[in-house]
Amino acid sequence: MARYASARKTYGISDRSGFRYRLREMRKEWTGLIVGPDEYEPKHPQLEAPNNVSDPQAVRDPRPDQTETVSVFTLTDSVGLPTARLVSFGQVGEVTVTT
User: 36 falls in which pLDDT band (50, 70, 90)?
Assistant: First the structure.
C-alpha cells in the first residue's frame, strides 16, 4: 500500500513553469497538469460540447394556401384609350408591363 506525503511543508514542482509550490496549494487542470495557484486556468466554456437542440420540423395546425385576387388597372389617356397594355402571368406579384 502506497503512502503519500501530506505534511504542511511538502513541496511540489509545477508542470507548466517548473516553480516550487506547496503541494496543498497546487491544483490539477482539465489538461491533467498540476500547476501552482497563480498558473491555474479553468476550462473555457467554448471547449465544451454544444447542446444538441433540434428545431421542430412540423407546423402545428397547418392551413392550406389562400388564393388571392389580382387587380389590374390600365392607364388611359383623356379620351379613354389605353396607353399601355398590361399583361400579368405567373404568381401573384409578378407583373410584366409591355408598351
Answer: very high
* Domain span holding position 39: 11-44
Domain assignment of residue 4, yes or no: no
Residue 72: all three cell numbers together: 389590374
pLDDT at residue number 20: 95
β-pairing, 11-13 vs 95-98, is unpaired
For the chain, percent of residues with pLDDT exceeding 90: 33
Q: What is the number of structural domains in the chain? A: 1
CA distance 70 to 67: 10
Q: Which residues pair with 76 in a beta bridge?
A: 82
Is 17 within the bounds of a domain?
A: yes
CB 6 within 8 A of CB 28: no
The C-alpha atoms of residue 91 and residue 83 are separated, in whole angstroms, by 25
